[in-house]
Amino acid sequence: LGLPLYVRHDGNFGALQDCGFAPLLQSVEEVLRKVVRQCLPSKGDCEVYHAFLTRNWVGREENATFKIHCDKSDLTFNLCLHASSDFEGSTVGFYEAPMRDGETPTEELRRHTLVHRVGHAAVHDGSAWHKTDPIIKGTRSSLIVWARLTGQPCPACGASMGATWLFCKSCGAEVGAGLMSAREACKHIARSPLAA
């Protein structure tokens, strides 16, 4: 295609926001904003800041090394773009957080397994522990988009605020009381009619 794509540390194509995909990502951002407005009204808005393409096939070395991890995002949008007709595996497991900080969950803490379907997307909290399972047969690819929650304007001075701020950095007004946690927001999104 001649696009300036680069291969990320995990073997996927990265930084789509920097190589001609901005109009597509703006459309994804509009969809995410609708989800946030409906399910997380206290969080304000969101903005897309990073996107990459995953590619999974049998024999891909990285498939054997996918680790349980959290994303560097407030929200992650995972859209299945392609799956071959013989595709098996490459599901995504979601895990309960371990009891002690600093520990990574084990398989015993797996609580949900996402089975990809072409044209369907999942939105999850970036702090949710998850892992892509090895692909058993065929091929699959997804568009992964990371977004940050931008928050409501400060009710006291109108300054732009981050979604998790407890006070306004411009005027010092306390505004964080009663905000929904990221974990609660993820559960709320999963129950939302938009998630269906």
Order of strands in the sheet with most strands: 3-11-4-8
Q: Please state the average pLDDT score.
A: 81
Distance from N terminus to C terminus (CA atoms, Å) equals: 34 Å
The biggest sheet, with number of strands, parallel, antiparallel or mixed sense and barrel status, is: 4 strands, antiparallel
Order of helices and strands: EEHEEEEEEEEEH
Low-confidence stretches: 177-196
Strand content: 25-35%
Question: Using DSSP, what is the number of strands?
Answer: 11
Count of alpha and pi helical runs: 2
Query: What's the alpha carbon Rg, rounded to whole Å?
Result: 18 Å
Residue share in helix? 10-25%
Structure report:
The protein is of the alpha+beta class. It is built from 2 helices and 11 strands. It has helices spanning 22-39, 182-191; strands at 6-7, 13-14, 45-57, 75-83, 88-89, 92-95, 110-114, 121-125, 129-132, 135-137, 139-151. A 4-stranded antiparallel β-sheet has the order 3-11-4-8.
Describe the structure concisely.
With 196 residues, this protein is an alpha+beta fold. It contains two helices and eleven strands; from the N terminus they run E-E-H-E-E-E-E-E-E-E-E-E-H. A hairpin with a 5-residue loop joins strand 1 and strand 2 (13-14).
Topology:
Blueprint: E1 6-7, E2 13-14, H1 22-39, E3 45-57, E4 75-83, E5 88-89, E6 92-95, E7 110-114, E8 121-125, E9 129-132, E10 135-137, E11 139-151, H2 182-191
Antiparallel strand pairs: 1-2, 3-11, 4-8, 4-11, 5-10, 6-7, 6-9
